[in-house]
Specification:
- The protein has 204 residues and is of the alpha+beta class.
- Helices cover 14% and strands 33% of the residues.
- It is built from two helices and twelve strands; from the N terminus they run ββαβββββαβββββ.
- The strands form three sheets. It has a five-stranded mixed beta sheet, with helices on one face. A five-stranded antiparallel beta sheet has the order 2-8-10-11-12, covered by helices on one side. Strands 7-9 form a two-stranded antiparallel sheet.
């Protein structure tokens, strides 16, 4: 039994702008200075090959195949390595229109997935959609994103203490913010939020 999964990748636009400075001569209050964030993120090592986990056996059940795919999707969402488990309802069928809730954990953080089974292809693969109800942000995942986006043009990134792994709203700005520091420059103190998506962390 094989499973076909489709996903979407969103492009990242990053940048920050500063407002104009000046005085109107009327004694206006100066703008407060931006705060330089405390957490330094250096370039992390490359992610290991995601084929380290063997595929399910040829006689594996549909649930086992689906759990395998959800573990891979969870790893992509986190953008980091860690302990991952997955659990789908026992005896879950592959009939078109079937709906179920599966669960994955990354480093002890649990995410529920809304799964809907689609049609089978001519090659007996099963199409389905799996949407996480929450996202996962990881410190290493954000570091890989920022250093990967700027490809050697930054010295490091500064963030506001992103944990090793944490649950976050999916697709919305999280409470974590980062600033990229370009080579030869100093931190400006102006940062942008990072977001959790099912395709990995994003910065905009």
């Amino acid at each position: 039994m094989s499973v076909l999964i489709t996903g979407a990748v969103c492009l990242v636009a990053a940048g920050c702008g500063g407002g104009k400075s000046g005085a109107d001569g009327a004694g206006g209050e100066p703008k407060p200075a931006a705060t330089v964030l405390p957490q330094k993120l250096d370039k992390p090592p490359a992610m290991p090959d995601d084929k380290a986990e063997p595929s399910p056996a040829a006689d594996a059940s549909f649930s086992e195949n689906l759990e395998y795919e959800l573990r891979r999707k969870t790893r992509t969402m986190a953008g980091a390595t860690g302990s991952i488990t997955a659990e789908c309802p026992e005896g879950l069928g592959s009939e078109n229109g079937t709906q179920a809730t599966c669960k994955t954990t990354f480093e002890g953080l649990q995410v529920e997935w809304d799964v809907r089974i689609g049609e089978k292809s001519l090659f007996s693969t099963v199409k389905y959609t799996a949407t996480p109800r929450q996202g996962i942000l990881t410190r290493d995942g954000v570091a890989r994103l920022l250093h990967g986006n700027y490809k050697g043009s930054i010295d490091y990134a500064l963030c506001n203490d992103i944990p090793k792994a944490v649950l976050a709203p999916l697709g919305s700005p999280s409470k974590y913010r980062c600033e990229v520091v370009m080579k030869g420059q100093k931190p400006s103190g102006f940062a942008q939020p990072v977001r959790a998506t099912d395709s990995g962390p994003r910065y905009y």
